[in-house]
Structure formats: structure tokens, C-alpha cells
Amino acid sequence: MAVSYSMVDQNTTQLPSNAGPTSYANGFNIAGGFVDEVILRVTLATAAAPLAADLSNIVSSLRLVLNGSTTFQFNSGYSLAANNGPGQLGYFLNSLGDGRFVEVPNDTAKEAYFRIPVGRQLAAGISRMEIALAWSATASAVNSGTVEWWVRYNSAPGQSTTTVSANTSYTHAIAQENVVVRLPAGVPGTVAGVLIQNDSAADQMNGLRLLSQSTYQIDTDMWRAFNSDLYNNILYADAGTSTTQQTIAIAVEGGLFLPTFGLTTDSDLVLQVDSTAATTRTYTPVITSPVTSATEPQGRQTTPLRSNVSAAVVARAED
Predict the structure, then answer these.
(1) Which of 32, 160, 183, 266 has most Cβ atoms within 10 angstroms of its Cβ?
(2) Rounded to whole angstroms, how far apart are CA atoms 62 and 132?
(3) pLDDT per residue over 60-85, tens digit each?
(4) What is residue 224's DSSP assignment?
(5) Among candidates 134, 208, 213, 180, which has minimal Cα distance to 285?
(6) Among 202, 64, 42, 241, which Cα is nearest to 138's?
(7) R_g over Cα of the chain
(8) Among candidates 118, 119, 62, which has minimal Cα distance to 87?
(9) CA–CA gap between residue 175 and residue 279 (Å, rounded)
(10) Cβ atoms of residues 18 and 137 within 8 Å
(11) Where would I find the beta strands (DSSP E) of the chain?
(12) Does the reported pTM lie above 0.70?
């Protein structure tokens, strides 16, 4: 039941910039074993505050691929350095477990940790991890910083496999509308929850109904009571408020995590959403399943490649 941490990459190039949005893609070879989570550690040094609150506010997308299988696909509904509240990615990660996103509160020396749940058994030997990370612009120049990618191996029993799949985007009118949230094909497990994001820092909806679990519409704050957000359960770094502790919030405007308590994946999810504005929302499902001893699949060659110079020379002469 040992836990082991391994840093697989450290660089000073995958940083955000005040010149505009930036995006990066990279891949690393990692050792086999049971990967509990992948950890992203980011440090920034600036002369002035690069953003109003926590660093997750400027993560516009994050994708994690293990041996060709996408395990985590996050796209932010909005990402702004000026947003003075919890960021969407930080809120999402902490909805999947306390402390999955934390940051040291400081205006000009940022240090943030993103812990991405994985729960996969990689085959012995060498596996491949690929990442894609995109930032929105910062409010001030980044003088220096580091981006580190870590893997945590954990052989303890009782863990789960987590898949965050591509979102469903829906353009809303001012109306009650049914939204079909597509679930990924071929991914075993049940639906633990759905992240709902608006394209701005505003809810702009009266409430919603998950057709398979409710016969009535449930308003937005009632959902926040059910997912424990209202219980002072959202923590984020805001150095303008405190540099010695996290800041408490009861809501992330424009963001809502909907717990679904292990719904089966027999069919796509259907939500009835009561929107108060013409806007675009995204719906990101989270699939979990018990851990098995099966390893992540890797491609296997089925056709032999025979190299024969003599035959090749003759074949060219005959053509």
C-alpha cells in the first residue's frame, strides 16, 4: 500500500503571459504502475498582481492522455484574470475531492497545485503521458516561473478510476429547454456528477431538473445546498483578502457541480434547464468505476514488417 511521487517534467516554458492566451502540448515517458493522480505544480513571479484571485481563473483548458486514452478533458466556460472569485477548474477539482486544488495566497509569488484524479493501472515498463495546457492572459507580466508535472503512484485498495470526458455545449434561449448531455462510448462505470458552466461569471438560470432523478425543477441555490457549496465549502486563494488563509465562498458564479450519485451510463443524461438569458453553457460528465487489475490498453502490432534488400532491388528492377 505504498505511495510514491515521481516528477516527470519540469520546465519554464509552459507559463501564462500578459501578451495574450498561450497553449502548450507535451508528452513524457513514465513508469508503469497504479497511477492514483497526476499533479500540476505552477509557480509564478511577477512585479504586480497577475490576476485578481486564484490561478485556476486563467486555465482555459487542460487535457490529460495516458497511453492514447483521454482521461481528463477540461474546458473552462470562461477564464479571466480579472475574475475576483474562485476559478472554474479549481472549483471543479475540489468538487471531486477536498484539496485537489490549493494555492498559497500571494499577489506576486504564485504557487498552485492541481491534483488530477486518474486511478489507472499502467502496464509494467514504459507508458506514455501527454498533456495539453492552455492559459488566458495574465493582467501583468510574468517575470519567471516553473511548471512541474508529477505522477503519484498508489497501490492501496479501494480506489476508483475517474474519467472526465469531453463536454456537451448548448446554446440556450430564454426558456425552459431539454439538454442532452452526451456520455462517452466505451467507458465503463457510472456518472458521479456533471459540471455545468456558463460562458460568463453569472448563473443566468432559475434552476434545472435532472429528468432521471427529479419530478420537479430544483433551483440553483438548492443544488448548492445538495452539493455542500452553501456550507462554506468553497475555498480559494485571494491575497487581497488574506495571505495567511484561504478565502471562503458559497458559490462560483456561472459554475455548478451537479452530483448524480452513480447514475448508470445506459443512456445519455437529459436535463431540463430554465435559462434566464440567451447564453452558451457546457456540461462536463464525470465517470467513475471501481479499480480493476486490468491495465490500460496499448496498441499491438498484428502485421509483420519484413525487410529484404535483395527482394527490394529485384522488385525495383522488374517495375
Answers:
(1) 183
(2) 6
(3) 999 999 999 999 999 999 999 999 99
(4) H
(5) 180
(6) 42
(7) 22
(8) 62
(9) 11
(10) yes
(11) 3-11, 22-46, 59-66, 69-75, 101-104, 109-135, 142-154, 160-164, 168-172, 176-181, 190-198, 205-210, 218-219, 234-236, 247-249, 255-264, 269-275, 279-290
(12) yes
Total Cβ atoms within 10 A of residue 136: 22
Average pLDDT over residues 206-224: 95
Amino acid letter for position 89: L
Any residues with CB less than 8 A from the CB of 176 and at least 6 apart, and which?
A: 217, 272, 273, 274, 275
> What is the DSSP secondary structure assignment for residue 151, as one 8-state letter?
E
β partners of residue 148: 10, 41
What residue spans of the chain are helical by DSSP H?
88-95, 220-226, 309-318
Residue type, 113: Y
The two most distant CA atoms of the chain are separated, in Å, by 81
Q: Which of 39, 34, 37, 38 is nearest to 124 (CA)?
A: 34
Tally Cβ neighbours within 10 Å of residue 167.
Answer: 21
CA dist 136 and 21 (Å) reads: 4
Q: Is 115 left (phi over 0), alpha (psi -120 to 50) or beta?
A: beta
Residues in the chain: 319
Query: How many of the other CB atoms lie within 10 Å of CB of 62?
Result: 23
Of residues 102, 120, 139, 143, the one with CA closest to residue 32 = 120
Residue among 155, 142, 200 at smallest CA distance from 36: 155
Give the closest residue to 56 by CA, choosing from 117, 113, 141, 131: 113
**At a CB cut-off of 8 Å and minimum separation 6, what does 55 contact?**
42, 44, 87, 90, 103, 110, 112, 237
DSSP structure class, residue 313: H
- Closest by Cα among 283, 280, 287, 73 to 168: 283
Residue in the structure block whose three cell numbers are 452530483: 259
Categorize the per-residue pLDDT at 296 as very low, low, confident or very high, splitting at 50, 70 and 90: low
Average pLDDT in the 264-273 region?
A: 95
* DSSP state, residue 187: -
